[in-house]
Amino acid sequence: MAIRDLLRSQFVTQSLAPAARVNGTATGSTVDLRGYDGAAIIVTFGAYTDGTHTPSVNQSSDGVTWVPCVYGTDLDATTNLAAVSSSAGANTTQQIGYIGSLRYLQVVITTTGATTGALSTASVIAGYPRNAPTQ
């Protein structure tokens, strides 16, 4: 069996840097999907202390005006990314596919009820490049 190099057919961009999230909204950096025909969103939680940490995804056609992605329409799932509200969500990775048509994505994590919070990070993987190799 031949092994194929996946590195040159995708591009990973960090939207939210690893950090301890406490009360408030952490809005990730803008990820540009130009030149790609598919994407996946990856949200990873590390150590959990307290609070409810709810990940979501926004999309934009211009990188300025953002609207929430709709599950089942823009995201390839019938349920959303799961909120983490107990130690059962610690050290887990969630992933969901983007099937919308807009050029820009950003990941958002909204945290409530936290004093020390939870560690989290988020990335977007752009795939199906129109021109490969990507790197």
Element layout with pairings:
Blueprint: E1 10-21, E2 24-27, E3 31-32, E4 36-48, E5 52-60, E6 67-68, E7 92-98, E8 104-112, E9 118-129
Antiparallel strand pairs: 1-9, 2-8, 3-8, 4-7, 4-9, 5-6, 5-8
What do these coordinates show?
This protein has strands at residues 10-21, 24-27, 31-32, 36-48, 52-60, 67-68, 92-98, 104-112, 118-129. It is mainly β and 135 residues long. The protein has one domain. Strand 5 and strand 6 (67-68) form a beta hairpin. The two termini are 24 Å apart.
Provide the succession of SSEs: EEEEEEEEE
What is the general shape? globular
How many domain units? 1
Oligomer: single chain
Class by alpha and beta content: mainly beta
Task: Report Rg.
Answer: 15 Å
Distance between the termini: 24 Å
Give the averaged pLDDT, no decimals.
94
Spans of at least 5 consecutive residues with low confidence: none
Number of strands: 9
Key features?
135 residues, mainly beta, 0% helix, five-stranded antiparallel β-sheet
Task: Quickly describe the structure.
By secondary structure, the chain is an all-beta fold. The chain contains no helices and nine strands.
